[in-house]
Amino acid sequence: MKKNIFYIILLLMVFSGNLKGQPHPVSSLYMFDQLLINPAFSGVPVQFSTTFIHRDQWVNLPGAPKTNTFTMQSSFFKARVGVGMIFTNDKIGIHDDYGIYATYAYHLPITNKAKLSMGLQAGFNHLSSDFTMLNIRDMSDPNLFGRVTKMNPNFGAGLYYYAENFYMGFSVPYMLENKLVDIESVLSEAKQSRNYYLNGGYTFTPNPNFKVTPSILVRFQEGAPLGADINVMTSYKEIVGLGMSYRSNDAFIFLFQLRLFQNLHLGYAYDYTLSDLNQYSRGSHEILLNYRFQIPGIHKGLLCPAYF
Fold first, then answer.
1. What pTM did the predictor assign?
2. Which tens digit of pLDDT belongs to each residue from 254-289?
């Protein structure tokens, strides 16, 4: 019974009235793969880079969000052009959202050590809701039977300025406010929201073995309060890293990063929920794997930036 109640709550959250929900939640480990929030990040790692992130949100709550993302990207033409792909799956209760997006960025040199990247992305989301998973008391509602699907194309753009120790980005990765479902009822008013991201960070090097990188991400979602992540990450010899984030009115986040091999990195985040949900959930877990390698003839002689 509790499971069905939670599914219904999620249904109301996603499809009620004039709701504009966030269709692409921000990962707590986004700073290690900023392609998730900004297409202009394509090619910044220089080498061919693949990243997988799994997020298990609000552990112990039935139907709580589970998100998987997989990205791949590379630079070309002496790091002047970056291309990439983003694959996502976001599952919330009876709802599944699959996304596929291609990204492109052009990196314009500003100085010998700084570049401005201009990026675009385009693709689509396939949304599916399986109402057969619900125990429905009102059998007369025709909108709550079977499976409802929807294909939503979308596109976005971003800017990303980066130097040896500093970066700043602004992006609107999903510009179209698509309807979530095509049902001739109040549900048809539910739309995806447009999100704006502004982020930046700076790396301090107190000594050759130790680095400290404070950063911030500001999120603006139409129809919702301004949100922000304030982060600080430390690393030792670029092998192991520890950090912490504060997500406004939501969570404290503990971060961990480890370079397992020269080209393989592991990341982990634990979100301690600050809202009333912490009475029912053990927080959220997130894990990341990143692998980079040079493509002979394309990346030879090009310097790959540090992981931070």
1. 0.86
2. 999 999 988 899 999 999 988 777 777 778 999 999
For 192, the token pair is 């995806």
Residue type, 91: K
